[in-house]
């Protein structure tokens, strides 16, 4: 019997092992939060001081942080109660400031100065990133204070207002608005401490970082235009 010849079969080539791609770290989910830019043009000295003082940026950060913390670790009723207290505090100051502006405008109109305003040597422009209604209310207080002080400066330069009275009004309102900012900073610290006790510190920190709340002022003096509030 003739033995059948068969061609040798090549062994099946082995496929190279697939390379395991390194896994990418999972990115945390980020909410798309609403924010708009509010530009303040501030002329008068004591309104400028409110913007330059160290509590302005912390106050803006605190107002946003309070809202973040309340909705992360509190219930809806608690959050609404605190937000109402903050709003009433700011609106109360705004109402008083408007009444003082109205009295000043009467004095200007009686003397034919209602269309007259001085030129200021070092005005500044500030852009506030508004991430909560309370931030807008607080920033608007400073803008309205500037309006009041410009009118008072008009009366003073016209010889119709004593220097002592002009200075007293400026300092009183600077202290009242700045004092409200300090209250909000203290409230934020207490809320943050409560979140930390509940083990929510990391969640709060992450949420607060999502919005840049207050850039520094841009001025003709060549100062930086913006910086994160957490710097």
Poorly predicted spans: 1-8, 212-231
This entry's quaternary arrangement is single chain
Q: Helical proportion?
A: 55-70%
Q: Number of DSSP helices?
A: 6
Strand order within the widest sheet?
1-2-3
Which structural category do the helix and sheet elements fall into?
Answer: mainly alpha
Distance from first to last alpha carbon: 94 Å
Helices and strands, with pairings:
Elements: E1 36-42, H1 45-52, H2 56-73, H3 76-110, E2 124-130, H4 133-157, H5 163-197, H6 201-209, E3 218-219
Antiparallel strand pairs: 1-2, 2-3
Helix pairs in contact: 1-4, 1-5, 2-5, 2-6, 3-4, 3-5, 4-5
Characterise this structure.
With 231 residues, the protein is mainly alpha-helical. It is built from 6 helices and 3 strands, in the order E-H-H-H-E-H-H-H-E. The chain has a 3-stranded antiparallel beta sheet with strand order 1-2-3. The longest helix has 35 residues, at 76-110. The chain is elongated, with a radius of gyration of 30 Å.
């Amino acid at each position: 019997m003739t033995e059948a010849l068969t061609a040798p079969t090549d062994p099946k080539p082995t496929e190279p092992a697939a390379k395991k791609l390194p896994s990418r770290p999972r990115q945390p989910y980020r909410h798309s939060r609403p924010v708009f830019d509010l530009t303040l043009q501030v002329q008068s000295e004591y309104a400028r001081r409110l913007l330059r003082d160290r509590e302005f940026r912390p106050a803006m950060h605190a107002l946003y942080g309070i809202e973040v913390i309340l909705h992360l670790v509190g219930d809806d009723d608690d959050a609404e109660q605190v937000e109402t207290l903050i709003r009433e505090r700011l609106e109360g100051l705004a109402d008083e400031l408007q009444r003082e502006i109205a009295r000043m405008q009467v004095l200007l109109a009686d003397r034919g100065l209602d269309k007259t305003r001085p030129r200021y040597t070092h005005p500044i422009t500030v852009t506030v990133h508004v991430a909560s209604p309370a931030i807008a209310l607080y920033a608007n207080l400073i803008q309205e204070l500037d309006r009041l002080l410009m009118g008072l400066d008009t009366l003073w330069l016209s010889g119709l207002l004593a220097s002592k009275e002009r200075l007293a009004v400026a300092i009183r309102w600077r202290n009242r608005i700045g004092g409200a900012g300090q209250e909000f900073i203290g409230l934020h610290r207490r809320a943050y401490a409560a979140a930390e006790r509940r083990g929510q510190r990391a969640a709060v920190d992450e949420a607060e970082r999502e919005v840049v709340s207050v850039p520094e002022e841009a001025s003709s003096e060549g100062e930086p235009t913006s910086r994160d509030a957490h710097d």
